[in-house]
Amino acid sequence: MNVDVAVVGGGAAGVDAAVAVREQQPDSSVALISPDRSLRYRPWLVYLPAGAASATDMTMPLSEIAGRHEFALVHGQVRRVDPEASRLTVGPESAIVEYKQLILAPGAPADRERIPGAEKHAIFPCDADGAQELIDRLAELSEAAVLFVLTGERIGPGLEYAGWVARAARAKGRDGIRVTVVEHGDALDRQFGVRAAERILRQAATLGIESIRHARIEQVADGELLLAERSVHADLICVTSPLRGPDLGLPGRLLNSRGMLTVDPTLAAPTARNVFAAGDFSDVQGMDTELPKTWIMARLQAETAARNAVAALRGEPAAELDRRKVTRMSAISMPDVGGQTVFVRNRKPVVGGSWPLRLRYRMDAKYLARYRTSPGATRPGM
To answer: Which secondary structure element, helix H or strand E, spans residue 235, and what is its range?
Structure first.
């Protein structure tokens, strides 16, 4: 197969990028390569253990999206990216996809080895298989101490999982389910600011969630979390979530120490100018602020990567990420902790409660309407 633009990854960034290229350059040939057959709306994974949303509500077949937007869909895992030859090797059959421009948006799975013992003894619910494992384990237990470890590049989902698990346990009279969040170092303070972090945890406490602040996590063991100061008993330990780049067979010189693709503000690799990255797989250098690993940021990057891939096809100059928009969106946080939130801007609490989440739910509904072909839930509900 030979295409103008190849896009690797069937998640939010990959699908948005493929659609954007087709919209901006209708006569271009585009192929989306993904090991998954469906687009999964990952922000809703946190609702699954509470039964606040179903897997059907958050899953959209990639074949239907590809058909509507007229790009090719290649099902398979990318085994090797050869930037010098501008081609991909896909699947066990070693199918070859040649491209003029490449957008890499494969996401970033959990780094299960960063905390000693975590791979063996912890659940990583930010990955889809980990979310299902959490559901299954919770169903087996009438009493359980459940810990959510907040560490790494993306701690928001840990708070959200904790909130919805605690809310569901309370609603179902499962008083034996005890939920605790454990902050590694100053993870909460760095993301939300000290005042906002304290306010979020006070709000979480109304759902019965306990918290351990500023812990130094040393190891995950069988039935306990080992801190520098003490050990904490747990029947379930969930880690959310240090990330690593997936193995795409890229030259190591293009990657950072976590296996992410290093790119400049145009999202192009400095030594492979027809290779772009979007979403969690990108390590963007040269920006005024560190870009968070969020769904919104992934979509902003997909927009820029698609625009620049099209510009390259036309022989036009590339444009950088919109720094003003990136800065504005990076400054906002709104974790959905069991249906309650604190709206945080510039690491300061602005307003709390449930009503700010209406904005988030409207964004959910708009996104789902864009890609879903059959009716379904537009907001979580129990």
So the answer is: none
Q: Which pLDDT value is given to residue 381?
A: 87
- At residue 124, the 3 state secondary structure works out as coil
Confidence of residue 227 (pLDDT cuts 50, 70, 90): very high
Record: fold of 118-242:
FAD/NAD(P)-binding domain (3.50.50)
Can you name the residues that pair with 64 across neighbouring β-strands? none
- The whole-angstrom separation of Cα 25 and Cα 213 is 50
Distance from C-alpha of 116 to C-alpha of 28, rounded to nearest angstrom: 47
What's residue 286's pLDDT? 95
What single DSSP character describes residue 247?
A: -
Question: What distance in Å separates the CA atoms of residue 134 and residue 331, rounded to the nearest whole number?
Answer: 31
Mean pLDDT of the chain: 95
Give 135's pLDDT tier (boundaries 50, 70, 90).
Answer: very high
Q: Which residue type occupies 325?
A: K
Predicted confidence at residue 195, as pLDDT, reads 96
Residues 154-163, mean pLDDT to the nearest whole number: 96
- Size (the chain), residues: 382
Give 346's contacts (C-beta < 8 A, 6+ positions apart): 193, 331
Measured between alpha carbons, how far is 231 from 237 in angstroms, rounded to an integer?
A: 13
Whether 118-242 and 2-35+76-108+245-330 are alike in CATH topology: the answer is yes
Confidence of residue 241 (pLDDT cuts 50, 70, 90): confident
Question: Residue 53's pLDDT is what?
Answer: 93
Helix (H) or strand (E) holding 344: strand 341-345
Q: How far is CA 174 from the centre of its chain?
A: 30
What is the reported pLDDT for 168?
A: 96
User: Do 18 and 276 meet the contact criterion of CB atoms below 8 Å apart?
Assistant: no
Reduce the DSSP state of residue 41 to 3 states and report it.
coil
To the question of domain 2-35+76-108+245-330 being in CATH 3.40.50.300, the answer is: no
In the chain, where are the structural domains located?
2-35+76-108+245-330, 118-242
